[in-house]
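Recall from the previous lesson that a structure prediction takes nothing but the amino acid sequence as input. Here we apply that procedure to FAD-dependent oxidoreductase from Laspinema olomoucense D3b. The sequence below is the only information supplied.
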Amino acid sequence: MKDLVLIGGGHSHAIALREFAKSPLLGIRITLISDVLQTPYSGMLPGYLAGFYTFDEAHIDLRPLANLAQAEFYCDRAIALDLQQNQVLCANRPPIPFDVLSIDIGSTPATLNVPGAATYAIPAKPVPKLLESWQQFREEVLQSPEQIRSLATVGGGAGGVELTLSIQAHLNKILAPQYRQNIEYHLFHSSSHILSSHSQYAARTLTKIMQNRGIHLHLNQTVTQLKKQTSERLELNCQSGLTLECDRIFWVTQAAAPDWLSASGLSTDNQGFIQVNHHLQSVSHPNIFASGDIATLLNNPRPKAGVFAVRQGKPLFENLCRRLQDKPLISYHPQQQFLTLIGTGTGKAVASRGRFGIGPFRLLWTCKDWIDRRFMEAIAPKG
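The prediction returns the following tokens.
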């Protein structure tokens, strides 16, 4: 009997578990370790914030998925690896041995280099903490809608733009018209324009949408410090001298990896992400695989985007099976360009691929909704 251990319930692992449910592998014991019972599907998260989806619709319930794959499920947090003994060390249970290990734990925004960010900002990941903070703020707004409030988002990539638009759209939906102007929205970005890695069309279009909706864009602004202004308010300081008082600060900047991965002895890049080859296999430890945001393809690095985690699911499953059976591994070749559909929070979306962009159109959101629901129906058993 060989032990396959999966750390994390990310998109690639969800797909791999579904494939194991369809095609069980004899003589293999599968264990899934995740610190959450329900993992968010990134494609539906902005729609959930905007109020288009329920919590269950936008989350993958890992326990029934693990049951289908006949996998043992431990709701726990991995904190280290013992690569001499081939064991995963967890926060609340004895070490878990493995013959083959796969890691798909996503990433977190890099905040540690900005004083006060780790204490006062709400990072976009891990998502459960983001959603908890959002629900708390939503309830505060509903309880006293007459109060003047200010929200700030740090990071002008697709994640920060979509988060801001979705939150504003949701609050506008639930607030009476006379209270909607009581909330100010600010977005800070260190570059001269938002969506730097997307088409110019998408950047121009979404800039115009945000400005038309009264969202304050602070471009060429590097945030240098967050601190407590009063018992209830925060202060955001920029390198330029710009200062803003706000009630919540969402942090959606470049991704980072947990320190325990590099400390374990795995080969990692400068940001701590696991370096893998074209088999999604660690370049330093051939019995370890990684996928999604936590992995960096050594010879073909790609952006940290959910589309790659989804595309890696089946190649990862295939190579885990092959490694367990001592068979040659297959290659994974990521696409060089990919389509991004950025929701406006109002039932429309802007499409961006390479230099090409169109929208905002309701049809694009309808297509995105169809794709996302189809994926969830295929991957996430309910009950």
